[in-house]
Amino acid sequence: MAAIYTYLTQDLLSGVTLNELPLHGVTFDRQLNKAGNMGASSSLDNARLDNDDLLAATTPGKTALYIYRENKIVWGGIIWSRWYQSQGKALQFSAQTFESYAARRIFRGDGRTKVTINKAQCQIIQDCWTDLQWSDPRANIQVLGATKFPANDVVRTYVLDPYAFATYSTTIEDITDNYDNSAEYYIDVNEDGNGNITKQLVFGYPRVGNIVSQTNLIIDYPGNILNYYYTENVSDATNRAFATGDADGTITIQPVPGPTPGDDSTAVIWGVAEDPLSFASGYPLLDSTKSYSGVIDQNTINAHARSDVASKPTPTITHTFEIDPVQDPVFGTYGIGDDAHVQIRDSRFPDGLDTVVRVVGWSVTPGESDGVEQVSLQLQEDDTAGGLGG
Questions:
Q1: Which of these, 290, 288, 339, lies nearest to 313 by C-alpha position?
Q2: What sign has the CA pseudo-torsion 378, 380, 386, 390?
Q3: By the number of CB atoms within 10 A of the CB, which of 145, 168, 197, 274 ranks highest?
């Protein structure tokens, strides 16, 4: 039988429970380090909930929405938009996970003073969330700090400038996306069984989630994989990445691997990184460039270049698996960042594909009148987990 989904809303600031919603056409997803999305529909004059109660329980910008699969929360976020269509009495919603709130808050500090942070990456992300909530009581959406931090995290230096009017997500996303040794994070949402819902930061360095020897997750085709997409893309790939920062007359640019930038101390600082395995495999030179405003440190710009070349390999392989949500591993028993052992044997891989992948996102369509629940996993190959090759 299809799993039972329920949809509960609370006031975003106070946490007061509002109502259980009669929703249909629901889709939702989660992404590592990023906000996940949700869309759904309801209607006025429905048999389950009074119109005034339905409208009061779905006010955009003021409402937290939680999705339960059976008795476990599998998604939580903020309703940001609502549309009404009169002819069909249709009410539609869009929401994003709580990570999205960092993009709606701008660092101001005291409005005059720059703040320099020199801490481990995960601590900087936590400080951002602490400040964006506690610097103003109108901004406290009750996301709790992490209970533990990873050991040996990399120390970064960031300057938060009130005159830049930058969002907190600008700093957070730079930490999670733009280094070859970035930290990872997400906001975990749980219910304690007594109706108390908590939202809490979870950090990982060099990664969140469990390695394959700990998860013991196995997905196979034929088997619990109903259908899969194996995409090889080189249209946006790179095997030589240039990263540029800002000019600073107080430093002398040091040579980096590859083309030498010279010693003009007023030139824009830059770094370059290459993928020698790509060239050894016969790929031609594929260049890319990305600018990092505010970077004046050579080691930092080099780390950005290494991250850029690693994030777009040749080819870039992505896996999307449509899985049976009620076969092992049952949806909800694994988390973002967890490893899975994949085994495939079919026409595309007649000799078999045997590899380790990470769950970096998922999208779900709950079963409704037809009872068909659809779960698609977004996976990336995990070379750090002792992969089995492919």
A1: 288
A2: positive
A3: 168
Q: Give, for 165, the enclosing helix (H) or strand (E).
A: none
Helices 121-134 and 168-177: crossing angle, nearest 10°?
Answer: 160
**145 with 208: CB under 8 angstroms?**
no
**For 294-307, how does the pLDDT look when each residue is reduced to its tens digit (9 = 90+)?**
888 899 999 999 99
Count of other CB atoms within 10 angstroms of residue 67: 24
Whether 334 has a pLDDT exceeding 70, the answer reads yes
- Phi, psi for 267 (deg, rounded to 5): -75, 160
Question: C-alpha angle with apex 294: 293 to 299, nearest 5 degrees?
Answer: 100
Residues 35-64: tens digit of each pLDDT: 999 999 999 999 999 999 999 999 999 999
Is 102:172 a contact under the CB 8 Å cutoff? yes
Residue type, 291: S
Average pLDDT on 278-305 reads: 93
pLDDT at 124: 97
Instruction: Say how far apart CA 368 and CA 5 lie, in whole Å.
Output: 9
Task: Please say whether the beta carbons of 51 and 44 come within 8 A.
Answer: yes
Whether cis (ω within 30° of 0) applies to the bond prior to 137 is: no
The model's pTM is: 0.88
Domains and CATH numbers, the chain: 5-98 (2.30.300.10), 105-204 (3.55.50), 212-233+315-381 (2.30.300.10), 240-311 (no CATH)
112, 88 in Cβ contact below 8 A?
Answer: no
CA distance 198 to 89: 34
Cis peptide before 222 (omega within 30 of 0): yes
CA dihedral sign of residues 372, 378, 381, 384:
negative
